[in-house]
Amino acid sequence: MKNKLIKFIAVLIAVMTLLPMVISAEPYQTYTYSIDGEQLLSPHAYTPREIFDSVKMGLPVPLQKVSDMVVDEKGNVYLADKDANAIVVLDRNLRYRFTIDTFINSNGIEDSFNSPNGCFVTEDSIYVADTENRRIVIFDLDGNYVRHLEEPKSDIFEDNTQYRPTAIAVDASGRIYVISPDIYQGVLSLNADGEFQGYIGAQKVSYSAWDEMFKKLFNDDSGKKNLPTSYNNITIDDEGFIYCTASANVKQEAITDKSGDYSAIKKFNAAGKDILGRNGFFGPGGEVKIDGGGLSTNPSRIIDVALGPSGSWSIIDADRSKIFTYDQYGNLLFVFGDRGDLLGNLSEMSVAIAYQDSNFLAFDGLRQTITLYTRTEYGDVLIRALQNEIDRKHGEAVTDYQDILKRNSNFDAAYIGIGKALYRQGKYEEAMKMFASAYETENYSKALKEMRQSWADKYFIVIPIVIVVFLFVVIKFFGYAGKVNKRTALKKGKKTFKEEVLYAFHVIFHPFDGFWDLKHEKRGSVRGAIFWLVLALIAICYQSVGRAYVFNPRASYTSMFGSLLSLLVPVALWVIGNWCLTTLFEGEGSMKDIFIATCYCAVPLVLLVIPATAITNILTLSEATIYEMLVSVAWVWVGLLLFFGTMVTHDYSIGKNVLTCIGTIIAMAVIIFCVLLFSTLVMKMVNFITGIVVELSYR
Which residues contact 624 (CB under 8 A, 6 or more apart)? Predict the structure, then answer.
């Protein structure tokens, strides 16, 4: 009995120990992001096949601490083991070939590495970043020593500069690009002989608001300098463009606003200009949504970049062990991997990634293993579509993208690719539908412009006639309103509803005598004010639901109730707050006068917001300022009318009216506070009484 109890306790302890691991284990999955940053599951582009440890690789000595992994054109794999002071070379099957650890240098002396952090392989050479020896050592592809490049010298180096190469890349002409963590000016550019040529792409400095304020207040430049952070990894493509990654001082805003200033990944041309495409819903840089629900609430810590086929490239987030893959334009293709023990996932110490033909390799720094991923049929179709785009085989690309959409309807790049093909064929309306499916407003706007042009060419006679007729009607209407207002000015007695409504056009253009007659000559009324308030509410509701796709791609509409409240509540608060304040400060207007004047001030919303919203259906993205200007003019006009209407209604001077308007705004805030406080107290009382009733009913 005692032995059974001990066994039961042992099993229980084991289950309790393993249960959190099982619960926390994440299955291997592939996904993309929606425009809201939510994960959308996707078919696997790469699927995990096998994990290679030191034994499976056939190594004579186990790996200790690999910091870098690269693959040459033949598929051979090179591992920089900085703790073992060695470069381990594997064949394309990830089987051991040879190790470079000791060599005879150019002085005929036996030499060795001291913490080699990185390496790079060209067609005929292996470049090793011998970090603590502060040099670059070059070998041929068989591991034979060729030469080494000592620490470069330059007059522009600061006195305390510490040259410690940790990552390198070499272009086709033999120019060497070096990352040294203690050098913040950027990537060092060396010629083939190791002579310093200059810096490329320094990171921007991030200043906090407190630092800026402190310096301005105390004129203090003696404090600690804010220096740009250095990059942590680098590679170069066949065209000579340099990809650099950084893990420090990276801001999440660089992803949401697609700014490259503080981005975790950059692509430099020979002049050191960042030319990385940042399309899609979010800029490339890893995790797009930081909501505190994941393993890390910080921006992605990117530590390596790998160049894939057909312009694709990948980065790895060391904190989340996720691999993000993008196309040449910066559109997110897919994300895979996670932290965990299941096949395909990695530990929290993932250090390097690399492409090997149709395979993908990820090195797990904690386990010192390589996870091999093979490309799936879906991945093959995706890569083929990207290549057809590059080769301008648009018809074949469309076929591939249609095949992709059959497997993954959430793949936005496919909609964009099909839309571009339709655009080139002159099928602009169909292209617009495809771009709208992917929320691609820029290309949608281009297609809209072309469709608008073709429509204008087709109806080139009708358009001028419509414009002339519209202007004629508007001019005639304002002329008619002016005649009615002039005739009504001489009329005695009660005004008709039409006369009260049309008087608004005199008020908005002649506010001083307009508001005076509105109050003293009874040219307006409550029913006229309600009429214009209702039209203004219709304008606000129409603005919410009537904007074209370019101006509202996410179809984010305010509810009808919300739209109504957005205008009714400010009007009610202004009327009540202004009446309460002016009653105490010798204001001559009653609440009725204030209400009528306030509602007549809303006329510009009807005149400008409705047509501005209507013309969004023919405006392109570059013409958005027209819409924004009309809406802004409408609200500024309303504000000016409200100011002058208050002044005339209460017979205030300008100075007193300014103070009154400011006081009214404060009164509005106080009313809101009181309403919220009262509603909170009422809710608490209701809950208290409900609780008592429930308690009594149970007893």
Answer: 550, 551
DSSP of 3-59, one letter per residue? HHHHHHHHHHHHHHHHHHHHHHPPPP-EEEE-TTS-EEEE--SEEEEEEE-HHHHT-
Q: Beginning with the edge strand found earlier in the chain, give each strand of the sheet holding 265-268 in spatial order.
A: 233-236, 242-245, 265-268
Would the pTM of this model clear 0.85, i.e. be above it? no
- Enumerate the domain spans of the chain: 23-375, 394-458, 493-681
Sequential DSSP letters for 597-662: HHHHTTHHIIIIIHHHHHGGGT--GGGHHHHHHHHHHHHHHHHHHHHHHHHHHHT--HHHHHHHHH
Among 97, 139, 101, which Cα is nearest to 122's?
139
Distance of CA 47 to the CA centre of its chain: 28
Q: 396-429 pLDDT, tens per residue?
A: 888 999 999 999 988 888 898 899 888 888 889 9
Provide the CATH topology of domain 23-375. Answer: Neuraminidase (2.120.10)
**Alpha carbon distances (Å) from 575 to 507, 558, 565:** 19, 25, 15
Radius of gyration of the chain measured on its C-alpha atoms: 35
Residue 70, helix vs strand vs coil: strand
CB 108 within 8 A of CB 147: no
Distance of alpha carbon 305 from alpha carbon 320, whole angstroms:
15
pLDDT tens track for 629-683: 999 999 999 999 999 999 999 999 999 999 999 999 999 999 999 988 888 888 8
- Number of alpha carbons in the 13 Å side-chain half-sphere of residue 648: 23
Sequence-distant (≥ 6) Cβ neighbours of residue 424 within 8 angstroms? 394
Query: In 269-328, where do the E strands start and end?
Result: 302-307, 313-317, 322-326
- Inter-residue contact 164 to 181 (CB < 8 Å): yes
Helix residue ranges, H only, 33-153: 54-57
Q: Which two tokens stand for residue 671?
A: 């009313």
Separation between Cα atoms, residue 60 and residue 663, nearest integer Å: 83
Indicate the CATH number for domain 394-458: 1.25.40.10
User: Which of 388, 290, 322, 264 lies closest to 32 in space, CA to CA?
Assistant: 322
Query: To 5 degrees, how large is the angle CA 213–CA 217–CA 220?
Result: 90
Note whether 138 and 125 are within 8 A (CB). yes
The answer to whether residues 384 and 402 touch, using CB atoms and an 8 Å cutoff, is: no
DSSP letter for 368, please: T
Distance of CA 81 to the CA centre of its chain: 37
Nearest C-alpha neighbor of 313 from the set 386, 260, 381, 363: 386
